[in-house]
C-alpha cells in the first residue's frame, strides 16, 4: 500500500463508504451542530489537514483507521470470519451484526410497540412508522413514502428499470438486496439456521416462515373472515377472493388477474415465451409445473398413488378424478337432463348433445359427429385400421382406451369396486351392470312391449323377436340367426364337431 496523500475534500461521496465510517462521520457532524462556536474557519482548516485520501480511487477519509478499512474494498481482504457458516467480513461491526443471525439476538427494541430488531438501522426505519410522515409522493400512482430512497426504489416499478444484474446467469433485479439474495443460489451459502430441525436457509424471511411450521403461528388474519395465515402474501391473495380485486393487468390486452403469477403465465400467451425446457427432449413450456409434469413421461415417475387400489398417476388431478371411481362421486350435473358425470371433460362432451350441431360428416357413410375427433375415431371402422397393439399378446385395437382396458386383463387390475358386496371389475360398465343385480334396476324398455332389461344387449336380442331381424349369417350356407350362440351351434354342423346335448 502506498503512503496516503494529503486530503482534497470533494462534495461527492462514493457508494463504497462503509456503514461504520458513515456513522463516525455522522457523530462528528452531530457534535459540531451541538457546539457551533467551535466551527470557525481555523477549526475547519485543522479538520481538513487530518483527512487522508485513498491512492486507488481518490476518496477522502477522516482517519487512518477509516482509510485502512476502506482499502480492504480494493484488496478484497475480509479478516473477520464466522465460525458458524464460514462467511467473511471486512468490518468487525458487520461481523458482529451477522453473528446475531446465528444467536437470534435482537438487542434493539421499539419503545412504542415492543418489536425487536437485529440492527439499529432496522429499528430506526421501523420508528418512522410511529413518528414519520409520508411526505414523498409518487406522481404516477400517488403512493406515499417515508423516505426519498423509498420513493426512488418504488419508481422502478413504473419504469421497469432493473439496474442490478447477476454476473452468473444475467438475471436482473430492481433492488441490490434482491440481487445479493439471488446470488446465494449460485454460491450455495445458507447462513440462517433453524435450531429446531437444523435446516438452513438463504434468507432470514425464509427461516422465519419455516419456524412457523414448528410453532404453528399464523399471525395474519383475514379482515373478512376468521381464516388465519402464516404468510402475509398468502393473506393478501386470500383477501382478493372476498374483494374481487384484480390488480395485475395484462400489458397486451385488457384482461386482469388477482395473482401476479397468473398474469406472467397469461402474458406468455401473447409473447410466445416458453422459458422452461425439458431436460430430456427439446420441448419447451410456458409454465414450470407443466414442464415438470411432462418430464414424468420420460422418467416414468408416477408420484400420486391411490390408497384404495394402489394405482399410480403422473398428475394429482388424474388421481383425484380416479378416486371418484371408488367413491362414486359424480360432481358434474347436466342442467338440461339431470345426468351426472365423474369427469368435467365427459360433462362438456355430453352438453354438445343439447347445444351442439353435428357438422362433421363421414364421406363414407354420411354419418355426422359433434367433434372432428369423433369423426376421426369413426373413420377407423371403414379403414379397419387397428394401430394400438398389446405388448403382452399382440392383440390390436382401433382406439387407445380399448387397449388400456384390455391390458388390465394381463395386469389383473380391477379398480372398480362394488360397495354392496366388495366384488371388483376391470371396467366401469361391468360394475354398473353388476350393481343392477343389487338395485333391481332395469333401465332398458322394449319399444314393442312392456318388458324391461338390465342390459342393453339383452334388450336388443329381445327386440329381434318382434322385428324378426337375424343379423348373424353362416358363411357356409347363408342361413341366418337371431343370436350369435345359435350361429356358433350351427357352424358345428359344417365342421363336424360334436354338439354337447
Q: How many angstroms does the end-to-end distance come to?
A: 115 Å
Helicity range: 40-55%
The total of beta strands comes to 33
Poorly predicted residue ranges: 1-50
The backbone outline, from C-alpha atoms, is: elongated
Strand content: 5-15%
Number of helices: 18
Q: Let me know the average pLDDT.
A: 81
Tell me about the largest β-sheet. 3 strands, antiparallel
Strand order of the largest sheet: 1-2-3
Structural class: alpha+beta
The Rg value, from CA coordinates, equals 39 Å
Pfam family, one: zf-C2H2
GO molecular function, one term: DNA binding
Family: Belongs to the krueppel C2H2-type zinc-finger protein family.
Keywords: DNA-binding, Metal-binding, Nucleus, Repeat, Transcription, Transcription regulation, Zinc, Zinc-finger
Tell me what the structure shows.
The chain is α+β, with helices and mostly antiparallel strands. Among the domains are: 5-75, no CATH class; 133-159, Double Stranded RNA Binding Domain (2-Layer Sandwich), CATH 3.30.160; 444-495, Classic Zinc Finger (Double Stranded RNA Binding Domain), CATH 3.30.160. Helix content is 44%, strand content 13%. It has a 3-stranded antiparallel sheet with strand order 1-2-3. It has a two-stranded antiparallel ribbon with strand order 4-5. The model is unreliable at 1-50 (pLDDT under 50).
